[in-house]
Amino acid sequence: MAPITGTATAPENKSASSTTSHGGGWSTAPFILASVVGMTVASGGWLNNLIVFLIQEFNIKNIDAAQISNFVNACTSFFPVAAAIIADAFLGCFSVIWISCFVSFLGLILLVLTVTISGLRPPDCKSESSSCACPSGLQYAVLYTALALVSIGAGATRFTLGTMGANQFARPDHQSTYFNWYFIALYGALFASATAIVYVEDNVSWFAGYAICASANVIGLVSFLAGKRYYRHDRPHGSPFASLARVVVATFRKRKLNSSSSTVDYYYGEKGVEKAAISSLRLLNRAAIITEGDIAMDGSIAKPWKLCTMQQVEDLKTLIRILPLWSSSIFLSTPIGIQVSLTVLQALATDRHLGPGRHFQFPAGSMIIFTFLATVVCLGLFGHCLWPLWKRVTGKQVTSLQQLGLGHALTIGSMAVSALVESKRRRAQSPISVLWLVPQMAIVGSGEACHFPGQVRFYYQEFPSSLKSMSTAMISMLIGIGFYLSTALVDLVRRATAWLPDDIDEGRVDNVYWMLVVIGVLNFGYFLGCCWFFKNKNGDDE
Fold first, then answer.
1. Is 268 helix (H, G, I), strand (E, B) or coil?
2. In this structure, are residues 76 and 4 in contact, taking their beta carbons and an 8 Å threshold?
3. In angstroms, rounded to a whole number, what is the distance separating the alpha carbons of residues 165 and 236?
4. Contacts of 450 (CB under 8 A, 6+ apart)
5. Domain 8-236's class?
6. Dihedral angle sign, alpha carbons of residues 161, 403, 336, 375
7. Could you give the 3-state DSSP secondary structure of residue 254?
8. For 344, how many CA atoms within 13 A lie in the half-sphere containing its CB?
9. Cα separation, 233 vs 359, whole angstroms
């Protein structure tokens, strides 16, 4: 999966009473965008080349290094969710961002120390045929601490910066323009980190590469803090997850009550929902049944963990109805996570010399740039050519679920191409060119150009207004779960087969890809089944 794990959506406008100042506007954009660039360069510089770093500097076996990389990617996808909850409920975006930037800097300092102090990493492995020393317990502790800190920093800042930037604008068109600049800055920084910094790490030194990352981190932190006086600061207003949790707890506490068909027995609060809503998922309706002591003298809820509004109940019902379609995207992310890590290992086993005289050696950790490029190109191609053509031919706008379906199909095709290329690589008498790996990365990038916008559009349309901000969190969460499952699946394959030995030349990576094709086809069937039964919030078929 490309490190841009998910897509931000513009938050809802907040009233003036929810802010502590009247700042904001375009004067804040340079500070926030500079911070986006600095923090993205810093995180991309170490994340894109992590597998190579673990193999070369810590003598970690190839597949083990890929597993660690997948786990780290999963963590960086989960941390935005935790950061959003903390920002909404406790600290606010500003405090979460600057603290996370500082935590990331501490992690990068530790990484710089690991490549500077010889005692913090095992001795160099001089020969592939000789036994290489494994890292000691202390060396592993320092390494994992560094990775934990930089993962927290990368995950907690990227999309929180996007949210805070959008919060500086009251007009939706200004928010939309801001997000255009946000993604330009994000993709530009991702491309720079995946090319220039990875090249420095491979051809100059790891110290120089990580020092650049640390410097970019400092620039991002200083730029963000420099704009403090201009920002509009939102007060913490509570997390939507807490509201959902209250529904579950209240339902359990009132599990012995009988559901009622009369609307007068339910608490609606200031904003009611349609009376017909109580007919679906009736079990959860118990959370809104009024019992003695639930209502205070002023008409408010006296016990929030025992009584909820019907709107809160309906919000949870919406999530439950969306959950099957959401889960189908987990196994869309799992094959991509495996492919990204295995492609780096494949690249290390190919001929990476390119250009006149073949003096330039393409960095294995930079293979991800072809996914970035394909995603950006296809976003423009689909938006300006394919989707308008679809509308002219069919007379209908392409739906979010159709975009998702095309993304599924392209991802399956990418796994099939990966299997065919790996078969060719294994049969070749000499190392094939690294350019043979470009098509599989480009196809998965074109798939991301379909299913990521499709997911954002689908969740934003279907989520109730009180939970719009969760749409990004849902995407980030499923990507994190997908990476965790990719780690578990690779471990299962290693235990059950001989397809993934430490030397991939002795294994059958092509069989792994064919297995992912089968998983993708089965998951696509599950996705189509979910689409068949799904009704949107207006009660219509997509």
1. coil
2. no
3. 16
4. 378, 382, 403, 404, 406, 407, 410
5. mainly alpha
6. negative
7. coil
8. 31
9. 52
DSSP secondary structure string for all residues of 419-468: HHHHHHHHH-SSPPBGGGGHHHHHHHHHHHHHHHHHHHHHHHHHS-GGGT
Q: What single letter denotes the amino acid at residue 123?
A: P
Radius of gyration, alpha carbons of the chain? 25
Helical residues (DSSP H) of 296-363, grouped into ranges: 310-328, 330-348
Q: Is there a contact between 319 and 477 (Cβ–Cβ < 8 Å)?
A: no
Closest of 468, 471, 475, 476 to residue 14, by C-alpha: 468
Distance CA 542, CA 532 (A): 8
Query: Helix or strand or coil: residue 236?
Result: coil
For residue 90, how many other CB atoms are within 10 A of its CB? Answer: 12
Instruction: Give the HSE-up count for residue 244: Cα atoms under 13 Å, Cβ half-sphere.
Output: 14
Pick the closest to residue 369 from 180, 190, 200, 199 (CA basis).
190
Question: Which of 368, 253, 526 minimizes the C-alpha distance to 2?
Answer: 368
**Helix (H, G, I), strand (E, B), or coil: what is residue 525?**
helix
The model's pTM is: 0.81
Q: Cα separation of 498 and 507, whole Å? A: 6
Q: How far apart are CA 461 and CA 42, in angstroms?
A: 34
Tokens of 120: 């913090």
What does each of the 542 residues of the chain score in pLDDT, given as a tens digit? 444 433 333 444 443 334 444 677 788 888 889 998 999 999 988 998 999 999 989 989 889 999 999 899 888 888 887 887 787 777 888 888 889 999 999 999 999 999 999 888 888 876 554 577 888 889 999 999 999 999 998 888 877 887 788 778 877 767 767 776 887 788 888 888 989 999 999 889 999 999 999 999 999 999 999 888 888 877 776 667 778 888 899 888 888 887 777 777 777 776 544 544 555 677 888 888 888 777 777 667 777 788 888 888 888 888 888 888 888 888 888 999 899 899 999 999 999 988 787 888 899 888 989 998 998 888 888 878 888 888 888 888 888 888 899 999 999 999 999 999 999 999 988 889 999 999 999 999 999 888 887 887 787 777 776 666 666 667 778 888 888 899 999 999 999 999 999 888 888 999 999 999 999 999 999 999 998 888 665 544 45
Cα distances (Å, whole numbers) of residue 532 to 321, 323, 324, 347, 502:
13, 14, 12, 40, 43
CATH 1.20.1250.20 residue ranges of the chain are 8-236, 329-542
Bin 357: left if φ > 0, else alpha if -120 < ψ < 50, else beta: left
3-state secondary structure of 234: strand
Side-chain-side CA neighbours of residue 488 (13 Å): 9
Q: Which fold has domain 329-542?
A: Growth Hormone; Chain: A; (1.20.1250)
In this structure, the dihedral spanned by the alpha carbons of residues 282, 283, 286 and 288, taken in order and rounded to 10 degrees, is -60
CA distances from 3 to 44, 189, 353, 480 (A): 8, 11, 26, 11
